[in-house]
Write a structure and sequence with these properties.
The complex is a heterodimer of chains A (about 120) and B (about 550). Chain A has about 120 residues and is mostly helical. Chain A is built from 6 helices and no strands. The longest helix of chain A is centred in the N-terminal third of the chain and has 18 residues, at about 25-45. Chain A is globular and about 35 Å long. The relative contact order of chain A is 0.23. Chain B has about 550 residues and is of the alpha+beta class. In chain B, the strands form 6 sheets. In chain B, strands 5-6-10-8-9 form a 5-stranded antiparallel β-sheet. In chain B, strands 12, 13, 14, 15 and 16 form a 5-stranded antiparallel β-sheet that branches. In chain B, helix 1 (about 10-25) packs antiparallel against helix 3. Chain B is globular, with a radius of gyration of 24 Å. The relative contact order of chain B is 0.12. The chains are: A mainly alpha (about 120), B alpha+beta (about 550). The interface of A and B includes residues 83 and 94 of A.
Chain lengths: ~120, ~550
């Protein structure tokens, strides 16, 4: 399996999320818990985190480096990267992040938030 | 979709076995689709994207030891090879993929219970799915004053890391994660449950407090092997120290390396210094592992033309002219970090005693960051290497990932990790031998001189990273280079401590004393306790009788 490179990022970056709006508040709240457990060690705000550092280098200010500050992530894009991985980031199994947890995470990251921790 | 089948198992038998697996663990925890099984590949596989890349035929995720027993009994009845993983995060050494393609991966991630934490006598009992982050968060949330010793990056399983004989950063008795375990529970290939150490006593009151129990101490044969499925392990943790001190010594001359390491060995083996030391070379840009975060921020050091010319003429990092340049500019040849844990007045005395020993080296210089009382403030945590203070971190993943100084991230890496004698002469010999080999093989390394990455109690360990790329031809060249490194290292008496599945037979091949007496012994055990050869065939080069032809 070849993992997705820059092209996939650029292609998906234009997609906007719609699913989260219908999912209610509980799902993004669960999604934030999933983010804190599984994503934050690499993607929390601050370039000391390797995922944030990588996206800071990649986008050079064109997009926020911290995922929670992004307003262009679609749910499908989040799910793609969690299940496919990219570069040093491996994919995550369903015993780690279940499909339901991934739905919640995708809803959380694709829901534009005012006053996000990463803003 | 065509059903994948394990080697030597008919599709009809496998279909029946899968249904029985579902009956044991629930249908949602048996994975058979290609999409799901792609998640059981090795994310850093040296064969990524190639037809030979290792894949699972199914994955089964039990939630209890009874379910593990059920799955193992079914596998044994149908002679289906299974491959247990804990959290599957052994990246660089195999990830969640089986050694033998077509195994059913036994995914133990759901078994993530912290079964006991004893703060007063500093131990825990956990299941395989408990990660270092899980354990750290539990200790923190419950205000338990125990420290974890974490690997780096630190997101694996306590049990999985210990069974692969991983290591960390703090005191020597905790740094070696297998050595720090106390008691295990094992499901054998026939489905029986066995407990080791004091756990063999049905009413045991000290399973996690006395390691060896009675009779042969068999725990060791369950690490880096395929003799059973580990479902519980105890670990001794470090009582939270009162204070922490990060100190360092700096030596001026090339040949100071020999007394520096000799004194380092004395102060650590005498417990004058009690954390993991770390050698670097400010002159030769050989980073201490604790310096990588600064490297990610600021990139490689810049040098003047005089330095570049001198370095180009140096041999194994040395020439009298290069040394004179360093002395003139007060750039140390060597640095060594020394961490201390304990009461403030004790570690102040320990650091003073250590300085007195290192003062035997003319011109030695000292530095320290000041004693910090524990718990550290959030601001203090930003000034330390988190694993040094028992906090799991993934910051080291920036090695190979995209940074402002690395615009071409890799897709993983393979670690070549030989054990080296703990003395200065060996360090120089390693550099002499590998500098030539790596140059011949066109493998780039970060600095012109390489120092140990990990420090076991009586030995150094080197880690050379070979990148995994999207280019199969480049990966093939790296694999060939790796195989050559294994043989060259062995010719010099250096052997790997751990390796990825692709190389496990090759490494086992060089541990060949007595016409492979150790491997024959291991395989005699294998055939006796797992006669159908169902558990992790080929892991660490141990094959069951009927599959020994698979040995590459």
């Amino acid at each position: 399996m070849m993992r997705h490179g820059a092209l996939a990022w650029m292609t998906c970056a234009g997609l906007l999320a719609a699913a989260a709006a219908a999912a209610g508040d509980a799902v993004p709240a669960q999604g934030r818990q999933v983010f804190d457990k599984w994503c934050a060690p690499c993607h929390a705000p601050g370039t000391e985190h390797p995922g944030t550092r990588a996206l800071d280098a990649k986008y050079d200010g064109r997009l926020p480096a911290a995922l929670e500050a992004r307003k262009d992530l679609s749910a499908d894009m989040v799910k793609l990267f969690v299940r496919r991985g990219i570069s040093i980031m491996p994919f995550f199994r369903k015993t780690e992040i279940s499909d339901a947890e991934l739905e919640a995470l995708a809803a959380y990251l694709s829901t534009p938030r005012a006053g996000s921790r990463a803003d | 979709m065509k059903m994948r089948t394990p080697p030597g198992v008919s599709a009809a038998d496998f279909a029946v076995a899968l249904q029985q697996f579902r009956d044991v663990v629930g249908a949602q925890w048996v994975f058979t689709s290609d999409e799901d099984l792609d998640l059981y590949r090795d994310a850093y596989s040296p064969q990524i994207g190639e037809p030979e890349d290792r894949v699972a035929s199914a994955a089964v995720a039990p939630d209890s030891v009874e379910q593990v027993q059920g799955v193992v009994r079914i596998a044994n009845a149908f002679k289906i090879p299974i491959y247990p993983i804990s959290t599957g995060k052994d990246l660089g050494y195999g990830g969640s993929a089986p050694v033998l393609s077509g195994c059913v991966v036994l995914d133990l991630k759901r078994m993530n219970r912290i079964l006991e934490v004893n703060e007063k006598n500093a131990y825990v009992l956990v299941e395989p799915g408990v990660s270092y982050f899980d354990m750290y968060r539990y200790l923190k949330e419950h205000g338990i004053k125990l420290w974890l010793d974490v690997p780096d990056p630190g997101w694996g399983s306590l049990i999985g890391n210990a069974l692969d004989r991983g290591g960390g950063y703090t005191m020597a008795q905790f740094r070696n994660h297998f050595d720090a375990h106390c008691g295990m529970e094992v499901v054998l290939a026939n489905g029986e449950v066995m407990r080791t150490g004091m756990g063999a006593l049905p009413k045991a009151r000290s399973w996690q407090e006395y390691k060896s129990g009675y009779g042969p101490w068999v725990d060791g044969i369950f690490s880096q092997s395929n003799f059973g499925v580990i479902t519980k392990m105890g670990f001794w943790l470090m009582p939270q120290p009162e204070a922490y001190l990060e100190a360092a010594v700096y030596a001026a001359r090339y040949h100071d390396l020999m007394p520096l390491i000799d004194i380092l060995n004395y102060v650590e083996n005498s417990r004058i210094c009690n954390g993991m030391p770390d050698l670097g070379s400010p002159l030769l840009d050989a980073l201490q592992i604790r310096e990588y975060e600064d490297f990610f921020d600021h990139g490689p050091a810049q040098h003047d033309e005089e330095y570049k010319a001198l370095l180009a003429r140096a041999e194994v990092g040395y020439s009298p002219e290069l040394e004179a340049y360093a002395l003139r500019r007060k750039i140390p040849y060597w640095s060594c970090t020394l961490p201390f844990y304990g009461p403030p007045e004790v570690i102040a005395a320990q650091w003073k005693a250590a300085q007195a020993r290192f003062a035997a080296i003319p011109g030695i210089r000292f530095r320290d960051k000041g004693i910090m009382t524990i718990p550290l403030t959030p601001e203090q945590e930003k000034t330390v290497h988190l694993p040094d203070v028992g906090i799991p971190s993934l910051k080291l993943f920036s090695i190979g990932a995209r940074t402002r100084f690395n615009p071409t991230p890799s897709h993983g890496h393979m670690w070549f990790s030989p054990i080296i004698p703990r003395n200065g002469e060996a360090v120089i010999e390693v550099n002499r031998v590998f500098a030539k080999v790596l140059k011949d093989l066109n493998v780039a390394i970060i600095s012109p001189f390489v120092l140990p990455a990990c420090y076991w109690e009586r030995a150094f360990m080197y880690i050379f990273a070979l990148p995994v790329t999207e280019d199969p031809a480049a990966n093939k060249r790296s694999r060939e280079a790796f195989l050559r490194l294994i043989r060259i290292a062995a010719d010099h008496g250096w052997g790997e401590y751990r390796t990825a599945p692709f190389y496990q037979d090759a490494v086992a091949d060089v541990y060949s004393f007595g016409d492979h007496a150790l491997r024959r012994f291991n395989e005699t055990i294998k055939d006796a306790i797992d006669p159908n050869g169902i558990i992790s065939p080929g892991r660490y080069g141990i094959w069951p009788r009927h599959l020994r032809r698979e040995r590459t």
